[in-house]
Structure formats: structure tokens, C-alpha cells
Amino acid sequence: MLAVHGxxxxxxxxxxxxxxxxxxxxxxxxxxTGINGAGKSTLMRMLAGLEPAPGAQVTLDGTAMPxxxxxxxxxxxxxxxxxxxxxxxxxxxxxxAYGLKASGLKAHDVAARVDAALAWAGIEGICETxxxxxxxxxxxxxxxxxxxxxxxxxxxxxxxxxxxDGAAREQVIALVGDLxxxxxxxxMICHDRDLIALPGITRWKLSEGRLTVRAPQAKxxxxxxxxx
Length: 228
Fold this sequence. Notes:
Blueprint: E1 2-11, E2 14-24, E3 29-33, H1 40-48, E4 57-60, E5 63-66, H2 72-75, E6 78-81, H3 92-102, H4 107-121, H5 136-149, E7 154-158, H6 166-181, E8 185-189, H7 193-196, E9 201-207, E10 210-214
Parallel strand pairs: 3-8, 3-9, 6-7, 7-8
Antiparallel strand pairs: 1-2, 1-4, 4-5, 9-10
Helix pairs in contact: 3-4, 3-5, 4-5, 5-6
Keywords: ATP-binding, Nucleotide-binding
Organism: Imbroritus primus
Protein name: Energy-coupling factor ABC transporter ATP-binding protein
């Protein structure tokens, strides 16, 4: 589905990473790992159009184009969920509806998608709650529902379980697992071994400026549960 060539980030003479090419297939779920400071979030932000990627080329469904300036075709098909999601000071329902309204959908279609997203994330009971009254786990689930409602071809998730514990973490893992099971194209950064060990996940590792790829593991080969 998506191929990127010449993805490189440098600070003066220091090269943070140099990735000649990367590929994400339709229905492929990828987890990107690496030590803090390796450049994982920077790489993802380039793919999301939040950071310039001069010289990089992207091929989307066979059509090649520069990655900077960010192509409108990508913006319409990729959704990015930040590690610390920003929610507007309205309600959960209004936050999920925002991107749908901006895309020009009719009101009844917006309402139907919002209802479906609320049900998918299990947050119908807080649909009219203002964001400042939500827990960290609820905020993350709202952000996932907002992205899910847009039905993107590719979801980019930056540390979806970061700073979550207990039931909140389990709920987010379940939502990500559902995305993987249903064949959503997905790239996520995480250190959570329960996410890394999900069946069918391809593992990328960014280390010393290079990207290495590890084949997906079957369910029986999954790593033990816990945090990395």
C-alpha cells in the first residue's frame, strides 16, 4: 500500500537515522521499537506530515510523489494518534465528530459514524463528558475512536499505552488487538510487550540509525506478557 524511500533525519553532522526504504502493506500491522532517542517518534511524525522529510519520496498504491510538502492524498488516508492526545474543550461526541464534519460528510452520516465509534471504543457512557473530566485511559480511547471513525487506510499510534496501568491499559490493548485482528494497516511505537507480542505483528527496530525488520510471529511464538 505504502512505500517510502530516502527517509533521513540529521542534525548538522549527526545522522539520527537513514532509512533507504520502508514498506507497509495493506492489512499489515507493524510495531516500531528502539531505545529512547533513536528517532522513532520523529520517523512517525514524518510519515504523518507533522515534520518535514526533504528528499523523501512516497509511493501510495503505485503513485509516486514527494513526501514534503505533504500530499493531500496521504492526509486523507492516514490518521495519527499522539502519545498525549489533544481533545477540544467540548464533549467526547463533538471531538469524534470534528474530523468527520471537516471532511464534508452529511450530518446523518456523521452521527452514524460517531455512534459506531463510541460503541467500538466502549465509551458511550461518557459521550457528553467534557475532556477535562476524563481519565488518561478514557482520553486515549476517545483519541482512538476519533481516528477509527475516519476509517483511514493507515493508523499511526505513538505509545498508545504509555502511562496507563491496570484496566485502562487492558482496554487500550484490546482496541489495538481488534484493529490488528480486523486487518487494519497499523504502525505503532511502543515498549509494551503485550502489544509487541500480538499475533501477526511485524516488528521493526530502529537502532543506530538503521531500520531492521523481523517477521510476524505466530500466536504460539508470542513473547511473554509484561512491559519491555
